[in-house]
Amino acid sequence: MVKARKYVVKNHFKGVPKREDFELVEYELPPLKNGEILIKTEWLSVDPYQRAYNTKNKVPYDQFGFQVGVVQESKDPKFPVGTKVVTHKGWCDYTIAKDGVASGPVNNVYALPDLKGLSPSLGVGAVGMPGATAYFGFLEICKPKAGETVVVTGAAGAVGSLVGQIAKIKGCKVIGFAGSDDKVEWLEKELGFDKALNYKTVDIAKALKEAAPNGVDCYYDNVGGEISSIIINQMNTHGRVAVCGSISSYNDDVAKMPKATILQPALVFQQLTVRGFLVWEWYSRWQEGFSQIVDWIKSGQLKTREHVTEGFDNIFDAFIGMLAGENTGKAVVKV
């Protein structure tokens, strides 16, 4: 029998998640049934959506999330012992999984993509769900054209940093907003953003007007809030907005959501297209995106950075740090 540990969410979060909202449970895994595999976790992901979906789940629940692990025992010929796999089994050190491809991506198990020698941790980052979110959300919704101006918020995060680089690959001018001067420097000097701005210290409307005097064509929105209203109000006719998330409000009380400047005048007079999305929409094409992203990384066109926390016992700290914006690039946990 294998002893396993997992994080169980006991409460619906009120504001910033608290340590006492989680319980670390140790338990014994049952013997494998046909079609099942035993996985030892190597890398875990902490992501904003884990906060956003908290109130949509009945408590208690096992904390979900993507992980990369290695098969220790198998009763599924598709995944022999030693295979590295990606699952959505969340914050646990060992788990039993069964490929539920028919019931959707959250229950699916897939072999870690061919990373051509890159770190397996990318399977929960640039070559995982965040990479697919950047790749498909930007290219399919914004449909960028060379020479256009693209703005990205949350630009130094797991998704935003990839969106900006993909936009550069497609020949666009890229402006990113981030929350520290160090992140601004990284975006400009290492990732090649044309301009990066610290939203905490600049006059957002004025700084954006200076950076994009001819207006904005595409906006990839990771944060929501007033900054998004300001950006949308500076968009060009037939501009496109991909709404990925709203991390600026995830810790706010649902009954006291922040207010922002209305968008309807800009949407109407500039004839804008605004579309929210969930990355599962393109799940059948994820591997297509992963292959392209790996090629871009290997060729040097796309750079990845990870904020690594070590230790299963430190997952909560990694989660809270990510929500506070302490990470540059993808926040991951090495188990």
Automatic annotation (TrEMBL):
Biological process, per Gene Ontology: prostaglandin metabolic process
GO cellular component, one term: cytoplasm
EC main group: oxidoreductase
Secretion signal span: none
Catalytic activity field: nonan-2-one + NADP(+) = (3E)-nonen-2-one + NADPH + H(+); decanal + NADP(+) = (2E)-decenal + NADPH + H(+); 13,14-dihydro-15-oxo-prostaglandin F1alpha + NADP(+) = 15-oxoprostaglandin F1alpha + NADPH + H(+); pentan-2-one + NADP(+) = (E)-pent-3-en-2-one + NADPH + H(+)
Pfam families per UniProt: ADH_N_2 (PF16884), ADH_zinc_N (PF00107)
SMART domains tied to this protein: PKS_ER
Cytoplasm in keyword set: yes
Subcellular location: Cytoplasm
UniProt keywords, alphabetically: Acetylation, Cytoplasm, Fatty acid metabolism, Hydroxylation, Lipid metabolism, NADP, Oxidoreductase, Phosphoprotein, Prostaglandin metabolism
GO molecular function: 15-oxoprostaglandin 13-reductase [NAD(P)+] activity; 2-alkenal reductase [NAD(P)H] activity
CDD domains: leukotriene_B4_DH_like
EC number: 1.3.1.48, 1.3.1.74
Domain spans labelled Enoyl reductase (ER): 15-333
InterPro entries in alphabetical order: ADH-like_C, ADH_N_2, ER, GroES-like_sf, MDR_fam, NAD(P)-bd_dom_sf, PTGR1
UniProt record similarity statement: Belongs to the NADP-dependent oxidoreductase L4BD family.
Subunit structure: Monomer or homodimer.
Record-given protein name: Prostaglandin reductase 1
